[in-house]
Amino acid sequence: MPARCVLCRQPAGRHISLCRECESSLKTNPTNCESCARPLQKSGLCGECQKNPPYYDKTLAPLLYKDAVRNLLIELKFHEKLLNAKILAEVFTRLTNNDCHPDLMIPVPLHSGRLRERGYNQSLEIAREITAIHKIPFARKGCERRINTARQSELPMQQRKANVRGAFQSCRRFDNLHIAIIDDVMTTGNTVNELSKVLKKSGARRVDVWVIARA
Ligand SMILES: [Zn+2]
Ligand SMILES: [Zn+2]
Prior knowledge:
This protein is α/β, with parallel strands linked by helices. It is 36% helix and 15% strand.
């Protein structure tokens, strides 16, 4: 069966289930902060990163969390549309076109209780697909989420930082490794920053953040 485009339902005409037209209609994030990928008018560092430099070194977030991208990510996260992880990992790779090869990818871990509830971790599904393209290994059990934090999306912005404080614990050393944290969407960046802090304390030399979309 030829693949159908998940957005327009027409034959996609290629191996991924997204036709070229629908792919080119996705909202991209071309000019953004070198550190946190917040959309900016011109390249450089945003005011927030200048004031409070994050623990991670660089963020790749090629799409904006809007319209079709938002729908694909919501379907992936809450409705088990795992095919969307494959499509979005492919789009991520094309748009970032990056020649940077981290030693290891770490999907943002879910708390075991949340994982049981949902049955899968969308960040791990994305990491699995990026591995298939880039051949960068990913660690399934490098870090744990030891606190079942309230969902960031349900909290006001000013409470999100405190909500994830101390949420992660590393299960090993990452001495001298260059790591890419994998997640679906980045909003305030507090979650990935907290995880970056833990990875750097466990020896990581460099931590990048790779997310599909920036909110
Ligand atoms: Zn289409
Ligand atoms: Zn920034």
